[in-house]
User: Which sequence fits this backbone?
C-alpha cells in the first residue's frame, strides 16, 4: 500500500534479535550481549502475514545477528510460506553461515547479504572484536554452494580505520560474481556520528575511476563495474545522497514493535492486536500511512544502535 507521501511500501525488514556475536566499533553501544524480548517464529509469521495483506512482497531477516537464533530456518520457512511474499532474504555477518546455508536455502531463503568490512584479518579483528574472518569466508563459500547466489557483501568504510582496504574489497567483485556494496557510515553510535570518518560514494568513485555505471533495478544502490568484472560494486549513500523519497521499507523489531523509519526513533506496538488479524491489518495500515518523510540523520545521533533496530 502507499504511505501519505505516495511511496509504495512493499519491503519488510524483521529484526529477530538484538544479540550479536560480534561487537562492531561503529554499530551500537556495548549491548550486543543484551537479550531484549524476542518473539517466537509463529509470532513473526503472524505479523508478517498481516503485513503481506497490506502489500508487503519482500522480507529481509536481520538483527542483531540473526544466526545467533537456532530457529532461523523455521522463521524463514514460515515467512516464505505466506501468500504474497515473493522473496525472503537474510542479512548476516556470516560467522555461523557455514552450518546454516543449506538449511536456509531449503527453508526458502532467496538471498543473503553478508557484512564484511575488511579482508585483512587484523583490521577485521579490530573492527569486530573477533578473530573469525576465516569463518566469514567459509560462510560465503557455503552460501554459494547452497545456491544462495548472488551473494552480496556490504562494507562500511571509515577513514584511517579500514578505508585503505577498499581496493581489496573491489577486487572481490572483480574475481567473483559477487556484489560488493559500500554503505556510508550512519550516526548510530559515537563513531558513526563522527563525520570525519565517513567515506562517501563520490570519494570512492573519484579514487577508482575505472568503475563505470551499470544499469540496475535497485533503487537504493548505484552499481558500477570495471573491465572484466564478474560482479558489481555498489554504493549506498543514505547520508550524502538521501534516498528517503524512494524508500519502500518498514521494520519489525525483535519485540514486535513496528518502526516505520530507520532514522526516526518512533515505534508502534501492535502486540495488543495480535489475536485479531483484521484489527492487526488495520493498525499496520495506519502505521504505514504515518511513515515519516525521511530520516533526520543530519540533526542528531540515533538513540539506538543498529543492533537494536536491525540494519
Ligand atoms: N548482524 C548482521 C550483519 O552483520 O549483517 C545484521 C545486522 S547489522 C546491524 C546490519 C548492517 O548494519 C551491517 O552491514 C553493519 O555494517 C551495518 N551498520 C551497523 N552500524 C552502522 C553504522 N553506524 N553505519 C552504517 N552501517 C552500519
Assistant:
Amino acid at each position: 500500500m502507499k504511505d501519505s507521501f505516495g511511496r509504495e511500501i512493499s519491503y519488510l525488514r524483521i529484526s529477530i534479535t538484538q544479540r550479536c556475536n560480534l561487537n562492531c566499533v561503529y554499530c551500537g553501544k556495548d549491548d550486543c550481549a543484551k537479550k531484549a524480548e524476542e518473539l517466537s517464529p509463529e509470532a513473526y509469521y503472524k505479523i508478517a502475514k498481516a503485513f503481506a495483506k497490506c502489500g508487503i512482497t519482500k522480507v529481509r531477516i536481520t538483527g542483531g545477528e540473526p544466526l545467533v537464533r537456532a530457529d532461523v530456518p523455521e522463521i524463514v520457512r514460515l515467512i516464505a510460506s505466506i501468500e504474497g511474499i515473493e522473496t525472503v532474504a537474510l542479512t548476516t555477518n556470516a560467522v555461523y553461515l557455514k552450518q546454516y546455508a543449506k538449511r536456509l536455502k531449503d527453508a526458502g531463503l532467496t538471498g543473503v547479504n553478508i557484512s564484511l568490512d575488511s579482508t585483512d584479518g587484523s583490521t577485521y579483528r579490530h573492527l569486530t572484536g573477533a578473530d573469525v574472518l576465516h569463518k566469514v569466508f567459509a560462510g560465503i563459500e557455503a552460501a554459494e554452494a547452497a545456491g544462495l547466489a548472488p551473494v552480496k557483501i556490504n562494507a562500511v568504510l571509515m577513514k584511517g580505520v579500514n578505508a585503505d582496504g577498499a581496493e581489496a574489497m573491489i577486487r572481490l567483485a572483480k574475481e567473483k560474481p559477487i556484489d560488493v556494496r559500500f554503505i556510508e557510515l550512519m550516526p548510530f553510535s559515537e563513531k558513526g556520528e563522527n563525520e570525519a570518518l565517513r567515506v562517501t560514494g563520490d570519494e570512492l568513485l573519484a579514487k577508482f575511476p575505472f568503475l563505470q555505471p551499470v544499469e540496475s533495478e535497485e533503487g537504493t544502490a548505484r552499481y558500477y563495474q570495471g573491465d572484466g568484472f564478474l560482479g558489481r560494486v555498489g554504493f549506498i549513500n543514505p547520508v550524502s545522497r538521501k534516498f528517503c523519497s524512494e524508500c519502500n521499507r518498514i521494520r519489525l523489531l525483535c519485540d514486535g514493535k513496528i518502526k516505520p523509519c530507520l532514522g526516526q526513533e518512533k515505534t508502534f506496538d501492535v502486540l495488543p492486536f495480535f489475536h485479531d488479524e483484521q484489527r492487526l491489518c488495520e493498525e499496520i495500515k495506519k502505521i504505514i500511512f504515518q511513515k515519516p518523510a525521511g530520516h533526520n540523520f543530519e540533526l542528531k545521533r540515533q538513540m539506538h544502535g543498529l543492533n537494536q533496530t536491525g540494519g
